[in-house]
Amino acid sequence: MLSELTRTGPGTLNGRFMRTFWHPIARVKDLPAGRAKPLRIMGEDFTLYRGEGGAVHLLAFRCAHRGTQLSTGWVEGDDLRCFYHGWKYDGSGQCVEQPAEPEPFCARIKIRSYPVEEYLGLIFGYFGEGDPPPLMRYTEFEDESRGYTDTITSTTPCNLFNIVDNDPIHIYFVHSTFNASQGRADIPRVSCEETDFGYIATAADSVGSWIYNCYMPNMVHGRRDGSPKGEAIQWRVPIDDENVLNIGVNLIYLYGDEADAYRARTNRGNPAEFSRRVNEVGQRVLAGDLHISEVDDRSLLFNVQDYTAQVGCGSPVDLAHQHLGREDATATILRGMWIRELNALAAGRPLKRWTRPSEPMYLGNDERVPISV
Ligand code: FES
Ligand SMILES: [Fe+2]
């Protein structure tokens, strides 16, 4: 069953499980009105577009006529016209025009469409069968009095399970350059327990403790690294079994001019370009051309550190030949829950209904900033 975890393509057991959840698939600001884009999620291709009136739609990847890629076409009003011979589809996937056809048969042509919802600056999609569950809300991130929020996105060329098993211990090794400046000396004990939404993890060292939350299956809510203080929710969405979309929301505890100055100072520019640079340097480290201690671009270093550790496990990571210990409490709990759910799905038994309290879930008052997500 362990090897099932790393496969999310259509028809796979974990693919069926993952398709019972909503997943963020793009940032709102990356899809302006009147634009269509290709999208790959869990090994399947789709067409994401925003009508001229602002509504977002998610359709099948290919035109039903001769199969060209619909994202290359034209958005017209709330519809999408194919680039090749001009068939037009509405947001439900219904073909509504076949301009070159003397006797149009549009009524018989419908491509698949998928539910989408915009929330917290992200576009979420639902890829499962039937009606989707309600999209989970994260009210901590809706509260503007807590600071300002920004959306983040990057891609990593590895499997989902190279990333979702990430743990607090790695901060003391992988990110030691950043921890040293925060005066952290000892390695924490990690404990973890299943909750109604996933798991809650506590890491405790001689100075104190901190918590973070994992929402099944693929989201982490934790403190964000660095200064100023903040927190983040971040999803790890399989693009396919060799690539992951990291996408989420940063909440920074700053306001007004301070927030503007911080935003300008930390602007990474185009996220695709940032990912490309991180991946390029990380690949040089893995190839032995560069040691991590020789990466002198601090703007890339934190991400290159994660890349090196996670992609360095090989993709897909070989879960069956790992040797987990007590330090791996979070991975042990996560895999245990996940496998239990896959067994239930395979046997046709009901799955756990993951819920969270309706009130905000704050991370406590510990002012330290140790966790990377
Ligand atoms: S392939 Fe789309 S209209 Fe012909
Ligand atoms: Fe990290």
What's the short version?
With 373 residues, the protein is α+β, with helices and mostly antiparallel strands. The chain has helices at 13-18, 160-163, 176-180, 256-266, 271-286, 298-311, 329-347; strands spanning 22-27, 36-41, 44-50, 56-60, 74-76, 79-81, 88-89, 95-97, 113-114, 116-119, 122-126, 148-156, 189-194, 198-204, 209-215, 219-223, 230-240, 243-252. FE2/S2 (inorganic) cluster binds next to loops.
Radius of gyration: 22 Å
Bin the helical content. 10-25%
* CATH topology (level 3) name of the largest domain: Naphthalene 1,2-dioxygenase Alpha Subunit, Chain A, domain 1
Strand content: 25-35%
Class by helix and strand content?
alpha+beta
Question: Could you give the order of the helices and strands?
Answer: HEEEEEEEEEEEEHHEEEEEEHHHH
Query: Which stretches are low in confidence, meaning pLDDT under 50 for 5 or more residues running?
Result: 365-373
Count of domain modules:
2
Largest sheet: 7 strands, antiparallel
Structure description:
By secondary structure, the chain is of the alpha+beta class. The chain has two domains: 22-126, 3-layer Sandwich (Rieske Iron-sulfur Protein), CATH 2.102.10.10; 139-347, Naphthalene 1,2-dioxygenase Alpha Subunit, Chain A, domain 1 (Alpha-Beta Complex). The protein contains seven helices and 18 strands. It has helices at residues 13-18, 160-163, 176-180, 256-266, 271-286, 298-311, 329-347; strands at residues 22-27, 36-41, 44-50, 56-60, 74-76, 79-81, 88-89, 95-97, 113-114, 116-119, 122-126, 148-156, 189-194, 198-204, 209-215, 219-223, 230-240, 243-252. It has a seven-stranded antiparallel beta sheet with strand order 12-18-17-16-15-14-13. Strand 3 and strand 4 (56-60) form a beta hairpin. The longest helix has 19 residues, at 329-347. The chain is globular and about 80 Å long. Residues 365-373 have low confidence and may be disordered. FE2/S2 (inorganic) cluster (FES) binds at residues 63, 65-66, 68, 82, 84-87. FE2/S2 (inorganic) cluster (FES) is lined by residues 63, 65-66, 68, 82, 84-87.
